[in-house]
Amino acid sequence: MFIKCFPLLMILILFISSFTMPLIKNNRVIKTISLVTNLICLVLSIFTFYYVQVHGSFKYRMGHFDAPWGIEFSIGSIEATMAILFTVVSFFIIWYSVYSIEKDIKDKNVCLYYLLINILLSSLLGIVFTNDIFNAFVFIEVSTLASCGIIVVKDKKENIKATIKYIVLSSLGSGLVLMGIAFLYSITGNLNMNFMHSELIRNWMDYEKVILISIGLFTIGLGIKGAMFPLHVWLPDAHSSAPTSSSAMLSALVVKAFVLLFIKIIYRIFGTYIISNILVLDIILLLGSVGMIMGSIFAIFQRDLKRIIAYSSVAQMGYVFFGIGLGNKLGLAISIFHIIAHALTKSALFLSVGSMIEKTGKKVSDLKGIGKEMPITLALFTLGALSMVGIPILPGFLSKWNFALASVQSDRLYLLTIILASSLLNGVYYFPIVINGYFGDENLKGKIYMSKEKSIKEIVPIMMLMGMMVCVGIFSNYIINILLMACEQIF
Fold first, then answer.
1. Domain annotation covers residue 298
2. Which helix (H) or strand (E) holds 59?
3. Which helix (H) or strand (E) holds 222?
4. Banded pLDDT at 129 (limits 50, 70, 90)
5. Angle at 353 between CA 377 and CA 387, to 5 degrees
6. Domain that residue 467 falls in
7. Given the DSSP bridges, would you call strands 71-75 and 58-62 parallel, antiparallel or unpaired?
8. Strand ranges (E), 197-296
9. Which SS3 state, helix, strand or coil, does residue 229 take?
């Protein structure tokens, strides 16, 4: 059916449209192209998801040759869900940026910015869809360059410094991933993930050390790109110094794509049988647990608002790696669910924080009484903060509850204390912002109601993201069941 080519069509639409932008001199038209192409991809991703739910997963061959000689996309429930997530989040981020990007970058760089945004989204979708490991590496490199571009485009000293740190560490991660691919190719003779898995299952006992080395290379390489603690050191500077819409894109989508690729490599290439005989999941569980705690501790000592949100991302990525490290079906499904919840929540948090910084200042102390001056924006921020802390009904709570259940299933009851401690630490740095914004005579004195609130057209994207976050919480059982059924094919 024609619908099977929709994943490729999404990538082509974004790539082709991005290279038409330099031919256009009108910034408004460029913004419209980026927004419309993203909306088209969102519609295509919805059709793809519907097809997968009705007809099951499918593979799409590119070119005239079948795998393993040709490149193919593999689309299942997880890939189709991630396509919707990536396109819907990027759509609202771009919508927000339409009204704010000139406040962060020069007019002459607007064209470059949206060119990079389209390229970045297309490469992230490529990472999600591809079933060819070297093809994934190509998309990794494209996404890395685009990510660096949307940081440094602000053209400030701190952005240049953050970009250099990011590209150096990211290049190291890419090199390690490439070395891991080379090791696997040397013993399998394939680059297609399914064929690699078949070869590994057949003769992995003969190459135990090579397989162990390759898993280590993938874990460190993609751990750097996915902000696994303590490989996260590039993230706080990059996310806090970038333009607001770039920060939202990096935190909500970019690091998630690399974690999804890591999941595909662990379970689609190596498989549960090989992984269960190696300590890699225990190491991932340990690093995820430490990240959950240390990310929050670092956030507590920050005074810059965007750095607080950035370190919060380190803690939240700790949850994702924590679930992967549990090594059971529920843990993996909830890791993917948490990716969905965090992408929606953190993108809205960065956008709301960017709005408040634009009207006040970037320090936490500058936000006293902001709840009176910008009540809607702070209300949206508060809703996201409550989800991050883990208030019932919201998806953050549901993630933590199910992580606790997955910990019990794995007979590791002591992990419950880590989940509880992390939740309490989240409250330590989120609640003071909310309390100082809404309460205290000394904070509210002299503040004029709604005096700094943005226009409704600028707030709507944040509202929509928060609304979808709440919907993810309400319909969590349906989403988790889809993910569990997809994970059954892995386990």
1. yes
2. strand 58-62
3. helix 208-225
4. very high
5. 75
6. 279-491
7. antiparallel
8. none
9. coil
Q: Determine what percent of the chain is predicted with pLDDT higher than 70.
A: 98
Tens of pLDDT, residue by residue over 373-429, are 788 888 899 898 888 888 888 898 899 999 999 999 888 888 899 999 988 898 888
Q: How far apart are CA 351 and CA 98, in angstroms?
A: 12
Q: DSSP letters along 357-399, please?
A: HHHS-SBGGGGTTHHHHSHHHHHHHHHHHHHHHT-TTSHHHHH
Neighbours of 63 (CB within 10 A): 9
In the chain, the amino acid numbered 353 is V
- C-alpha span between 402 and 144 (Å, rounded): 32
Residue 104 resides in a domain = no
- Report phi then psi at 363, rounded to 5: -85, 150
Closest Cα to residue 465, out of 324, 354, 371, 357?
354
- Type of residue numbered 265: I
C-beta atoms surrounding 46 within 10 Å: 16
Check residue 16 and give its pLDDT: 92
The alpha carbon torsion through 315, 316, 321, 326 (nearest 10 deg) reads 100
Report the Cα–Cα distance between both ends of the chain, in Å, rounded.
Answer: 29
Query: Residue 60: phi, psi to the nearest 5?
Result: -120, 120
Q: Give the closest residue to 279 by CA, choosing from 212, 201, 204.
A: 212
Instruction: Output the six-digit token pair for 63.
Output: 């070119």
What's the pTM value of the predicted model, to 2 decimals?
A: 0.93
Q: Is 68 strand, coil or helix? A: coil
Query: What is the number of structural domains in the chain?
Result: 1
Distance CA 14, CA 121 (A): 8
Angle subtended by helix axes 110-129 and 77-100, to nearest 10: 170
